[in-house]
Amino acid sequence: RSELALIPAKIIVRKTSAWYRGATIDKGWHQGVQDGSPVILPAGSQGRAGLVGRVARTAENESEILFITDELCKVAGQVEGTSERGILEGVRVSTSRRPELRLRFLARDAKIEKNQRVHSWDNTNRFPPNLMLGTVVDFRPGDASSEAIVEPAVNLDDLPYVFVMEQKVEDKPAPPPAAPPR
Q1: What are the residues whose beta carbons fall under 8 Å from the beta carbon of 169, sequence distance 6 or more?
Q2: Tens-of-pLDDT digits for all 182 residues of the chain?
Q3: Counting CB atoms within 10 angstroms of each CB, which of 23, 25, 41, 169 has the fewest?
Q4: Quick one: which of 120, 105, 106, 108 has its CA closest to 153?
Q5: Are 85 and 78 in contact (CB under 8 A)?
């Protein structure tokens, strides 16, 4: 159950050469899907919305989605129970490894522990706040900034379906009528 406006979609294509990068779904702009829309699934024992990724390209009746594990899908994230915020991004991997996410640009002296959850943080309006992104599995302090290694909240190995979040379209005034030809 969700208070969000969702479009259910079935995964119809996954390329084995890019298993953790994205997929094609059976819904497109004709069904209300828009480029950039967040793609989610229930995650964890509480069934909260977990981020799968975002819509990268929309056609009439199908769309390509970019998974959270792709390096092009960046999300502002915050570590639960802290004020630590950073940018979560995927790391390119070969098909033989599971993908990892890095929460980068954390404070040099950040106090982050294993098993802390990471949620989306609303600073761009692309992704709504409080979507589950994943769980910290490692923390790496750095000289200038630190980073956390995060396991995705959603199991990307087995995705028969997803939900696309509908985006609000702002009402825009109609353009003025064209002047009649002379």
Answers
A1: none
A2: 445 689 999 999 998 777 788 999 999 999 999 999 999 998 876 778 999 999 999 999 999 999 999 989 999 999 999 999 999 999 876 555 677 899 999 998 899 999 999 999 876 667 889 999 999 999 999 888 899 999 999 988 888 999 999 876 544 445 556 656 65
A3: 169
A4: 120
A5: yes
pTM as predicted: 0.84
Dist CA 123 CA 120 (whole Å): 9
Which residues make beta-bridge pairs with 50?
Answer: 41, 132
d(CA 8, CA 27): 8
Phi first, then psi: what are they for 169, rounded to 5°?
-100, 120
